[in-house]
Write a structure and sequence with these properties.
alpha+beta; Gyrase A, domain 2; Cyclophilin; 2 domains; seven-stranded mixed barrel; four-stranded antiparallel beta sheet; 5 helices
């Protein structure tokens, strides 16, 4: 449910969590994005960071420059006067994926769990357009949703200590791409040659909150010849 007005929760002595709803939903996430962009444009004195997520926005602030009450007033004003017409349209990004074999070691397991073929897993995963709900966990990691119910898969019982950069994975009704090598507990069904995070680029993350992502299957040979 989308709240009529924000709910505020103090997080220690220099952060406020602004909740806009109580569930994972594209409409709630769109409102979080709109509030995030609106506040970011204002550059409120004393606010040092804005961290958006599925249904909330975390504001990090300097209490010596602005009080929590003053900050809540600023957020309330922004929330009441948000104009979606002035919010930039999200971009759609096509992500090529090599599914299965050594690039997607969990594809067969996922297929067996759902009692379908690996080809059907690929078809379901790649026919949907996903919304970037948030960037988190590690730099540039996109939380994408929602995976169709037919492919909803629990996390691995035992996380891997090393998940290769570029791995495309699913967990429950989320899918994502590992931008760097890291531990992870999602099921790896494929791999992409696309670079998701480059600290020298501007912006460093290829994907941003609100963007749309579509996956499409490629062969190993196409992967070897792929050019960004």
């Amino acid at each position: 449910m989308l709240y009529d007005k924000p709910i505020y929760r103090l997080m220690a002595d220099r952060a406020i969590l602004v909740e806009l709803g109580d569930e994972i939903s594209p409409s709630i996430n769109d409102r979080v994005r709109e509030l995030f962009i609106s506040l970011d444009k204002q550059e409120i004195a004393g606010v040092t960071d804005l961290i958006p997520s599925y249904r909330s926005l975390l504001l990090i602030y300097d209490p010596l420059q602005i009080s929590s009450a003053e900050l809540e007033n600023q957020v309330n004003n922004a929330h009441q006067h948000m104009d979606a017409a002035h919010i930039p349209s999200p971009k759609t990004v096509e992500i090529p994926v090599v599914y299965g074999d050594d690039k997607g070691p969990d594809l067969e397991w996922v297929a067996a769990y759902h009692k379908i073929s690996p080809q059907e897993v690929i078809r379901i995963h790649s026919q949907h357009t996903y919304q970037v709900y948030m960037i988190g966990f590690t730099s540039g990691f996109p939380y994408l949703g929602e995976v169709p119910e037919a492919l909803s898969t629990p996390r691995r019982a035992t996380p891997r200590t090393h998940v290769p950069k570029g791995s495309v994975a699913i967990a429950q009704r989320q899918t994502g791409i590992y931008p760097v090598q890291t531990p992870g507990g999602w099921h790896i069904i494929g791999w992409t040659p696309v670079t998701l995070f480059d600290p020298q680029a501007e912006p460093p993350s290829l994907l941003e909150m609100g963007d749309r992502v579509r996956f499409h299957a490629i062969t190993v040979k196409e992967m070897e010849n792929w050019q960004p």
